[in-house]
Specification:
The chain is built from seven helices and seven strands. The chain is an alpha/beta fold. Among the domains are: about 30 residues; about 100 residues; about 60 residues. A seven-stranded mixed barrel has the order 1-4-3-2-6-5-7.
């Protein structure tokens, strides 16, 4: 009986231990920690890891290579946080690689990306510290862009307030009354313009027949003008212009001959002796006419009885 009792207790103990081990294994497995896997761990120090929790993924080039195992305060400085990363043995990277903390999506959540330095040939070993950097998230980027805009908007609002205060200072009671009167005048002008437009519409509506007849007359005149233009075009203006051009050319030739002294007309115009003779003859003719008027008996002889008196004289 004693042997059977011991056997049951042993079995019970074994089952309890087995359950406890499975519980621990399952809990760590859900956290991303495989107790049967010989993983390496690395340490990273950050100033702020808001949103990062244990079991968050660790990636390299977007591929998951491990998990965040532990987050605690740094022993040297309580203002900094020390992160323990569990990395698979199959993945190797240099000691100068960086651990970048970044946002995994718009709804939150953080992860750590290993950024390898391929120029460095020294391989990082388990327990090494990696340099931690933080990639600005969407919220930080928006704040960086909105902050200058916010300052500009505040400055613009302040300037607008100053402008309004200056306007209020400039607008005295008399000025306000004048502005109100101007607005009223503008309203009256608008109403008058509306009435004028209405009257004009009525005039056009009442005289639509006359307007239509006027347009028809204009159209008829345009057709007549087109016919006149066509008639002028058919009149062979080119020949008329050619003849006119020939006449002008001939006239230019005549003027050229006169100017060069060639021909009778040129001699009459250029010879002073002919002009002087004509002037002398004109003067003598004028003297003869005056003498005839003064002494007509010298040139005209007549008698009532037909007697010749020239000898007596």
């Amino acid at each position: 009986m004693i042997k059977l009792k011991i056997t049951k207790e042993i079995r019970t103990g074994v089952l309890v231990m087995t359950g406890l081990v499975m519980t621990i294994f399952s809990f760590n497995y859900l956290k991303g920690i495989n107790l049967f896997d010989k993983s390496r761990y690395f340490l990273v120090v950050y100033d702020n890891v808001e949103g990062l929790v244990p079991s968050n993924p660790v990636t390299i080039n977007g591929y998951k290579i491990g998990n965040v195992q532990k987050i605690s305060f740094s022993g040297d400085d309580n203002n900094k946080l020390e992160i323990k990363l569990m990395i698979d043995n199959a993945v190797e990277f240099s000691k100068s690689s960086k651990a970048e903390l970044y946002e995994t999506g718009l709804i939150g959540g953080k992860a750590i990306a290993i950024i390898p330095n391929y120029k460095d040939t020294s391989i990082a070993e388990s327990g090494d510290f990696l340099k931690g950097i933080i990639k600005p998230g969407l919220t930080e980027l928006v704040n960086q862009k909105l902050t200058p805009l916010q300052f500009k908007l505040e400055s613009a609002i302040q300037n607008a307030d100053k402008v309004m205060l200056n306007i209020n200072d400039l607008l005295s009671n008399d000025t306000k009354i004048s502005l109100q009167q101007s607005i009223l005048n503008f309203k009256n002008i608008s109403e008058s313009l509306y009435e004028t437009t209405d009257n004009l519409s009525s005039i056009i509506s009442n005289n639509s027949n006359s307007i239509e007849n006027s347009l028809k007359n204009i159209e008829t005149s345009a057709e007549n003008l087109s016919e006149i233009t066509k008639s002028v075009s058919d009149a062979n203006l080119s020949n008329l212009i050619l003849e006119l051009k020939t006449t002008v050319t001939n006239f230019n030739l005549v003027l050229t001959k006169i100017n060069t002294g060639d021909g009778s007309i040129s001699k009459l115009l250029d010879n002073d002796a002919i002009f002087n003779n004509l002037e002398k003859a004109t003067a003598e003719l004028e003297e003869l006419i005056n003498d005839i008027k003064a002494n007509p008996n010298r040139y005209v002889h007549f008698s009532i009885f037909g007697k010749n008196t020239s000898k007596n004289q």
